[in-house]
Amino acid sequence: MTLTRRTAFLGFGAAAAALAAPPLARAQAPRELKIGLITGPQHFWTQAMQGFATAIRTASNGRYTAAVFPAGQLGNESVMVQQMQAGSLDMGFLTLAEFSNRAPNFAAFFAPYLVRDVTAAGRLLKSTEGEAQLEQMTDQGVVGLGFGLGGMRHILSRTPVSSVADLRGKKFRITPFAPLRDFYNIVGIAPTPIPLPGLFDALANGQIDGADVDLELVWTLRLFQQAQHLVTTTHMMFPVVSVMSGRVFAGLPQPDRALIRRTMAAELDKLVARYAGAEGEWLNQIRGAGANVREVGRDFFGDVATAWEREWGPRAPSIARLRALAGA
Ligand code: BEZ
User: Which of 35, 112, 155, 168 has the fewest Cβ atoms within 10 Å of its own Cβ atom?
Assistant: First the structure.
């Protein structure tokens, strides 16, 4: 047996008593929650998770900490979902792409022209229908803690766009998931799934003609330097969901589950408010940098939205309920 200086000083009998002391007498090591996501360190989503890490440490008096792994360090979203199902990853902050590929009803949030801005999107995500969708996450082995969002989606092109006809036959980068792919197929654009970190180079080397974007990507990744024509179509919202491994969640005491939910909800509210403030600012900055910005209404895409809904309405029954709530 190796004696520490303290136990050696106490003598052998006292040393044995000290070694036998119950573990509760020692401070409990914090439980570290690993959080994976695909966005880079400067992205609002990553900053929101860092905000959660700070908040949960404080709210739990140091019993919980969180380590954030951005930029797909733990793998792509599909891999992260598998890790959470296995219980080897605690949490993720993920687009709905992977979930809607597995369960089509999640596509409902991508119904074209469902909402007109991020504030309305934030309200819809917190509605009864949003809550119902969160509960559906458990079917996939994860627990939905809450929705956040990214910016509204627009079109960025290397060549001028005066009407939708200018887009036909072009290759556009999209986030690879079925509802978005179908939208672009209906427009007549060839959707090209390129991972986010490769987007700038793909525009620079002409691999693609344009991309489905939000203003945060255009500004922070400097995409306007390679594709100068921004058409603010505002055609879709882009939710993100905070999820926890079902296995990990089940192993936590009930008050801690509630604490984690509350703490995450506060960060998600801040994230939505942040986007509401930043969208206009990014647009001004992109304009100021010399990009050609064209604002268009929902008539820009003609009957594409109707055709999309004919296809997706039966597969995603939540669309009708979300439309009713969004209109109310
Ligand atoms: C995208 O694939 O376009 C995307 C992914 C995560 C955050 C924002 C955008």
Answer: 168
